[in-house]
Amino acid sequence: MHLPFEPHELSTELVDTGAARAAESLAELVGCYVHLDVCEIYRLPVDELPKLIVDQATILQSFKGKVCGKAMLLFPTANSRAMAALLAGYPAARDIALFEQASVLSEVGNIVLNGVLSSVARLIDDQLYYEGPCFYLDGQLQERLAAKLPTQAEAIQLLAADLSLQIRSREIRGTLLLAFYQETIAPVAKEYSTA
Questions:
Q1: What is the domain-level CATH number for residue 53?
Q2: Structural domain range at position 39
Q3: Which BP terms in the Gene Ontology apply to this protein (predicted)?
């Protein structure tokens, strides 16, 4: 069974409201203009996930409601430190400590992922509850997901989107991933098909 909405519907909702709200919140946090662009959302085969999360700094946030799953924001490891330093106001990436990088990127992830998940909640007309974000570097996420995500491809559905964060005349590219547990999608999809 598929999601109760099409990827393009979520893309439209994000472009119209979710990304704009997240950019406003980030701008308040860093004290300057921020632009967040989320490209078209597409379905991603589950077997592509391990390749996508290699060499990435990742913010992972679990969500629960009518639908449950994991939301992830990924940035190339090489760029994540520079982005964290930029957001924290450091002149160079080498000046930011790892714990500060984790803190800054977790807050960015919290803001962006909450905007995304709010858009999902509006589409399914439900409230979603989020856990706090967790920060992972490189192989840490692969180990964590191996223990947390179902192993059968049919047990989850993945949506992905490329995103661009523009701040202080710099552009940082990343990836947004939403992993929905199939067991929670089926009842919601059935509810929407009869409505």
A1: 3.40.1550.10
A2: 7-194
A3: chemotaxis
Whether 103 is covered by a domain: the verdict is: yes
Determine, yes or no, domain membership for 1: no
**The token pair that represents 134 in the structure block:** 């967790």
On the 0-12 / 13-18 / 19+ scale of CB atoms within 10 A, 64 is middle
Distance CA 102, CA 12 (A): 30
Question: Number of structural domains, the chain?
Answer: 1
Which residue shows structure tokens 């391990």?
50
Q: CA 114, CA 54: separation in Å to the nearest integer?
A: 24
Residue 2 falls inside a structural domain: no
Identify the H or E element spanning 6: none
CB crowding 73-100: b at 16 or more within 10 Å, else e:
bbbbeebbbbbbbbbbebeebeebeeee
> What tens-digit pLDDT sequence spans the chain (195 residues)?
566 566 566 666 655 677 788 888 888 888 888 888 887 788 888 888 888 888 889 999 999 998 899 999 999 887 888 888 888 888 877 778 888 888 988 998 898 898 888 888 888 888 999 998 989 887 677 666 665 555 555 678 888 888 888 887 888 889 989 888 888 877 776 676 665
CA distance 71 to 130: 10
Residue 47: Cβ-neighbour burial (10 angstroms; 0-12, 13-18, 19+)? exposed
